[in-house]
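Milestone 3.1: sequence recovery, worked example.
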């Protein structure tokens, strides 16, 4: 399937990988790229030198295009912005902020820039700043989210900009992919389904929670301090939401989440850890290789779109 995104990025299938902190590391990124999508290394809160090593590891195993996601609240974002240039990375996606100040340096180095946006205003601002495409990410997504749904956000962003739009949030199968195309998207970004990929290094306890999750098993924490994060319900979210309701200060809430994503992904602590996942977790039922996932999604979508 050809779209402006497959052409822009030189990939076979219009499926890109969400830049999930701790999860989207070199093994998973390389697997998604090898399967014909665009693998992404999620820099999350990692130091710049760690990101450089991750990039080098992907380059060792695949010649296919891949990207790096820079989470803009990372204190080392400036250094990571330079590392992607030094390492010759061709595509950058950004999240949780405005990447405007890096745009000139990336354009000069011929890096394709794809900011993740959660509003029409941000999408327009990014197009004016020189973005090559945008990811319009709905509130169904896991992790740090905006408030608009994918169904409402994607067509409004498509109408507001001329650059290609990638839909994200609530997409995990061929039906979601086809629906995104109907809304005017030219690719999809998926996170939750890749969490349970065979190549994903996420702890088995976390994968089992995603596979067992039902439609309404996610909660949004952090709304009170302006950083809403979607994750699967557990002891941690119950405690967090109780404190938030009582008006606890940010410092107290932060104690619960410090290092909690690592705890879940690496140690498999599904009780106190943060199990970031989107609302579509209820649809994710089995572990498969990235290639099996992408082939299955494209097969289903092509049948639906041919109707
Ligand atoms: O960034 C994400 N998802 C994330 S980042 C992350 S790491 C984290 N961990 C704990 C707490 C907070 C973050 C986990 N998941 N998705 C992309 C995304 N970007 N969603 C929403 C936005 C966004 C929000 C506001 C993009 C731009 C924006 O504009 C702000 C501005 O500066 O104007």
């Amino acid at each position: 399937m050809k779209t402006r995104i497959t052409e822009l990025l030189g990939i076979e299938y219009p499926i890109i990988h969400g830049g999930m902190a701790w999860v989207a590391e070199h093994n998973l990124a390389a697997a998604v790229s090898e399967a014909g999508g665009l693998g992404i290394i999620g820099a999350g809160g990692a130091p710049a030198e760690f990101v450089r090593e991750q990039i080098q590891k992907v380059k060792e195993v695949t010649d296919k295009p891949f990207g790096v996601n820079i989470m803009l609240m990372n204190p080392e974002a400036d250094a990571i912005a330079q590392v992607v240039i030094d390492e010759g990375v061709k595509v950058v996606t950004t999240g949780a902020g405005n990447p405007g100040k890096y745009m000139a340096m990336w354009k000069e180095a011929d890096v394709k820039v794809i900011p993740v946006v959660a509003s029409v205003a941000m999408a327009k601002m990014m197009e004016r700043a020189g973005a090559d495409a945008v990811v319009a990410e709905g509130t169904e997504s896991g992790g740090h989210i905006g408030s608009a749904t994918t169904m409402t956000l994607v067509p409004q962003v498509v109408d507001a900009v001329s650059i290609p739009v990638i839909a994200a949030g609530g997409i995990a199968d061929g039906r979601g992919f086809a629906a995104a195309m109907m809304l005017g998207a030219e690719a999809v970004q998926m996170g939750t389904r890749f969490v349970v990929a065979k190549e994903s290094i996420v702890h088995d306890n976390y994968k089992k929670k995603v596979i067992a999750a039902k439609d309404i098993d996610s909660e949004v924490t952090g709304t009170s301090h302006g950083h809403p994060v979607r994750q699967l319900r557990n002891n941690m979210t119950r405690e967090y939401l109780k404190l938030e309701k009582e008006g606890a200060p940010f410092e107290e809430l932060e104690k619960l989440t410090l290092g909690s994503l690592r705890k879940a992904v690496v140690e498999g602590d599904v009780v106190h850890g943060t199990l970031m996942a989107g609302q579509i977790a209820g649809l994710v039922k089995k572990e498969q290789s990235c290639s099996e996932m992408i082939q299955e999604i494209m097969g289903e979508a092509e049948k639906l779109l041919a109707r």
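The radius of gyration is 18 Å. Residues 290-306 form the longest helix (17 residues).
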